[in-house]
Every structure is written in C-alpha cells, then in structure tokens.
Input
Amino acid sequence: MKGSDTKEYPAVWLQAAGCTGCSVSVLNATNPAIENLLIDEVLPGKHINLRFHPTIMAGSGAPVIEVMEATSRHEKGGYILIVEGAIPTAKNGIHGVVGERNGKPVTMLSRVEELAKDALVIIALGTCAAFGGIPAAHPNPTQCAGMTDILQTRGINIPIVNIPGCPPHPTWFVGTVASILLSGLPKPGDLDEYGRPKAFYGQLIHENCPRRAYYDEAKFAKKFTDGGCLYELGCKGPVTYSDCPLRLWNNGVNWCIGNGSPCIGCTEPGFPDEVSPFYEKTTAVLPEIPKGDSG
Amino acid sequence: MAKIIIDPVTRIEGHLKIEAVVEGKEVKEAKSSGTLFRGIELILRDRDPRDAQRITQRICGVCPTSHSMAAALSLDSAFEVDDKIPDNGRIIRNLILGAAHVADHILHFYHLAALDYVDVARIAEYEGDIPALSSIRNFIKRGKLEPFVPRYEGDYRLSHKVNEQATAHYVQAFDMRRKGQEMLSIFGGKMPHNVGIIPGGVTSIPTVDKITSFLWRLKEIQNFVDNVYIPDVLAIAQAYPDYFGVGSGCRNLLSYGAYELDGKEPDLIKRKRLFKSGTTSASLNFTKLKPQRVAEEVKHSWYADSISQRHPSQGDVILDEKKDGAYSWIKSPRYEGKVHEAGPLARLMVTYASGKPEVRSLVDSSLAELKLGTDNMFSVLGRHLARALETKLIADCMANWLLELKPNEPAYTSYELPQEAMGMGLTEAARGALGHWINIKEGKIANYQVITPTSWNASPRDDREQLGPIEQAITGTKIKDEANPFEIVRIVRSFDPCLACAVHLISPKGNDLGAYRIY
Output
C-alpha cells in the first residue's frame, strides 16, 4: 500500500453538552466497524483521518488542543466537523469548556464557532447537536442550542447534516460520511425540512412498524409485556421519522418497539418536551402517511 | 515549582481538567475539576415521574444502564412495587446491568486505559500476518497517525511480543464490547439508552430463543475475559509492578451493592445482592451501609453554601458562580463526613470484607499469583485488577441467572401512579456507587437528586478541607518527567471517571496559574 495513493479526509469530533452516547453508538457500528473507520480505508483509497476525538485519542491536554486548532488553521474548507452534544450559550457559554488558550478556558461555543466557519461540512450527530435535545429541555438551564441555530445566529454558512437520535443509529452516521466521501456534499432534496438525510429519516416509524396491523385493528396493549400496538402506552412511532423498524439496532438484534417499549420520538426536533410524557398517549396531530411513492 | 495542567483529560467520559503542582519531582497539590454543567436535575422537575427513568439515562451514554436501574429502583419504591417485581423481571434487569458492566469494563481497560501502557507505534515494525496488526502497520505507513498521536512519550515497557498481543487485543476488544452491547439489547431493546428496564420490571417476557442467543454471546465474552482480558491485566502488572504502589488514594471504600438476588425484600440494604452494600478501609473490616449518612458538601463547589451537608433526599441545585475558594461544580459527597472511593475496587473489597467466599478466593488467588497482599489493591493496578476480576465474577453469575429465567412467564407488575411519594434507588454503575432520590408531589417530580460514582471519586475539597479521592491519589506521587506525566493520567484513568455523570460547571474567573506551565 502506497501512502500517496490514499486520500485523507481530516475530521474533528467535538463533544459539547452531551453524554457521549452518540460516540458509544458509533463504537457499535458494524460493516464497517469502528476499528475499520479508525485504521482502514473506509472506502477504497479513502481514509478518515480522525484527528480529535476525546474518548478515543491517545493524547491529552494542550497537545491535542493544538491538533484541533491546527486543523482549522491549515485545512480550511477541507475537514469534516462532527459535533456531539448541544452548545451551551447562557452567559457566553461558560457552562461548558474544552481546553484552554493562553491559560484561559475556551468555551464550547467559541470552539464550534471557530471550527464551523472553515469546515467542509458539519455533521450534527445526535439530537442534542442537531436540535438541542435533553440539555435544552425545559427550563434549559444553560440555554443549550443545536448547531443549526448556532450557525444561523452567527451567520455561518457552511453545509450541515443533522443525524438526530438519542442516540443516533451508527449506520445513519457511517452512511452519511460514506455518502460524502463517495458523492460529495448532500444535494437539495437529499435532506428533509429538518436537515435529516431522507435515506434514513424519510418515513415514519409507524409506516414500517411490525405492530402496525394491531393499530389498524385497534388492538392496543394495556400494560407492558402485553402484545398489540403500543399507541396507548405512549408510542410516538406515529409522529417520529426514522427507519428503526427496518434497520433494527445493535447489529440487527432488537429495537425499542420490538422489545415491547413505546417509541419516545428521539429523532424529532421536539425531543424530549414535545414527545413527553413518554408513557402517555400522544396528543399530536398524526401526520398523513403518503401512499405508494414513499418507499 | 511547576504546575501541570491537563485539559482536557481524554479517554474518559466527559470533560475533566486536572491541575497538579509539582515540586522536587513530587505532586504537592492536586485539583480535579469538571468543565460541563447541564443541570439535568433541574430539567427533571415537574415531569411525569416515569420519565425520570428515560431522561436520567441521558446523564451518561457510557453508563446509562446503571442510571436506568437506579431510577427503576427509586420508582419501584415510590410506586410501592419494590417487593412485587416478578423473578423474571428481577433476573432480566440483572442481565441487562451485567451486560453493561462487562462491556464497559472491556472498553475501559482496552480503549480508555491501555494506550497509557501499550505502544501502538511499535507496530510499524510488525512483520507477521495477523490482519488487525497488518492493518495498523499499513495505517502507520500512510503517515497520518491521529488519533494515536500525539501522546505522552517514554514509559512504554512491554516486551515486543506482549506489546503486539496487547495491540491485537485492543482491536479485538472493540468487537467484544460491541457484542456485549448486542447481548444487552436482546432484553434491553437497544444500546446506548436501553428501553427494557422500567419501574415494575421489564418490557419483554423471556423466550427460549432470547435466552439461547444471550447465552452464546455470553460464552464468547467469558472466553475473552478468562483467556485475554485477565491475562492482559496480569501482563501489564508484570511490566509495571510499581503501579501496585502508586495512587492509593483515601483507602476508604464505599459500595451501595448491586444485582438483586431477592425480589421480595423492599429494603435495599437488607436485600440479598451479589455485591454487598457497606464500607471498608485498609484494615478490611466490614461495616453495614446506613444510607441516611450520605451528605453532599459544597464549600469548594460553585453552589450556595446554604445547600451544604444535606442528605440527597433534601438536596438542591442553587448556583453560586462567584463563590470564593470554589474550583469545581462537582459537589463533594461524603459518608459520615469522610472521603470514600467508589468503583469496582470498592464493591469487590467491601464484598470481600463481608466474607463472601467466592470473592475472597477470586481476590486471594490472584494476589497470590502476583505475590502481593490486599494492601496492594489500593493502587492504580489494584483498580484494574479489581475491574477485571469482577468482570469474570459478573459474567459467570450471568450464565447461571440466565438459566433461572422462566420462559413465557410474567416479567412485569403494574402499579398506580402516586400523587405524593418518595423513593430511593441505590445500585452500582460500572464506575461505582450510584444513588437516585425522587420526591413526587401532585403526581409530578418535585425533586430528583443523583449522586454518581464520579462525584465521589472526582470530588473537590469538602467543608473540612479533605481532598477528594482522585486528588488524594495524585498528591504525593513522584513524577519522572513533567513533560510526559504518565503517572497522573494513569492514576486518573484507573478510577474510570465519568464526568457527564458528575454534574458540574466551569470557573467563570479563569485559572490562577503557577510560575510556569508544563503540559
């Protein structure tokens, strides 16, 4: 293998106000697995050069911060910025910092502003990074915001793809990255109104749910471990867009509804406030299911 | 005098900064502070109590399962079903929690800790044909070495052969921890953030195909633990024997206990569990736990002094961002006013001190093989050894519990939602003692408090100026090379800190720096 033949795609993975669950989910990726993503050419002749990932990288402290900062200095317009977690904005972002500069802590807010403006593309990974998610839930103590809000309020015009989910499925992330490597940035029409790839978020859970027949016949589970549709136990499948019922989780082992648990709508912009109480029947108007041409 | 500042400390969960003042090659002063505050406890207020069980998992994506368990236990007690969980529900909860612990410990040893001991860069010279090592050699030849460099340079001591094996196991362990999460999902629905554990039991009834599928994944993991993980810990121990004497810390250990062996006893302290609740110290005398003696202190945390020394059931979150002398927004949990370490070492040695035969033989035989005494357990390598040994203990127990399941029989019991109630859930996260306390009023969450293991371990000085366990473990440590402070990161990582769990906030005033800085 000759070094010069491989195209390197620099990537910086910033963790902000989150729980590392998105990273752990990506560790669960299969075909390619995480070891392939880190070490191997993920597609022939293409390697993701993951320069900064707090949970994985060997180094600590100022040297790794220097790697992060050097990437935005030297690779302008050439690196993938992956953001995990929401961005605290209250009091100029003091509720979250990543490293220091000249002896002063640098807020996550400053980091994403600096990294976003020179990125090739931004992947907002997980519902927190995409829409604010859990830390932005009422009363939003640290005024957390998702990346689209951050970019808009600061006039940063860099392409962004939202990969929501709490956590997101690893394939939604890997598939999005592979798509960028293979065919370039998403084209108009590839993403839905919330910036989600239609390839993964194009249909309601409800459209593909194996318990759908029970819904249509009004056979509803009354308590956990009952058979039937979970609608009356609070299932948000009828208002949630994702391919979970087809893709399944953890290498195809299971998924929420398959395990007898109602969908909690974790890929939606209103998660968690607008889809909770999780175990109460949804009061939202159910979206109409398109006929025929949706698949 | 030099001040070593490590910010961020990586290969842990979350955002942590460590400051150490070094004089004459020895750490004279250490401070541990977190750098992210989300206020999850504030977000929980006024919500449906059942939602706490889903939202608290989002405190931490590495150990969500333990939060789901602690929340379910606290809601079981609030909903008055803590003596009615069907055996299937109790056992499946244990299996979900056990799968999480096993996967987590493999992740911790190989992916979070091992790069402090294993020299991946030496695989550049690899000439064999093991695919994982060939891949790494090719990766190194391409010349873009992140995320494996930059790193601390110098103190890598493994022989060529052991280093190669350990690197191959680093790659294999990715597969093993992933299989652990797949195993968890059989009953948990998905990972991270399982959906299986709920108040009243679990969401799905065991079936024979699920039991078999779990069993055979477990067998593969048991094989890895027995033949790879534990031998690798022992191999590291042989190359770095001095680390059985480094980072001893406070030597007071606290365990809440975990893995329910009895579904009918509502009192968590009386309930029969695999790991005992209690405390112990270097003398290894066992003392029963009295949960009412836990309190959180905030003198050096950015919270109002008015909430200091409260029991968590009365706890609160009132920020005081300008408080003098505060340097962390982790509170300082203390037991009977004393500093305690939580974690695998604590629960293993508390259970050891209680006299449980299988734990005593497991620990004693390993120490005999290493020609060490129980005192050496209070150390960096002692923590790694405890983690590996309890992985074996839990995995072996799971194989038995699995066969106690009764296919197609109930796994859940219904409850009425109370208007007013209180609940307490005490269990063990991979990283140590985890407690949830709920207070329900008018059918909603009036107050919810969480004390996580990393709050115990990474806590700052308390009201009596006692240092937290990690601070104590670093203080007094000899540093060979201030530019590559392996000793500090090895100590910190031996605690497996989880900062998203330890709710906290940064200092808005910046940092008061010493004479000069070395990273």
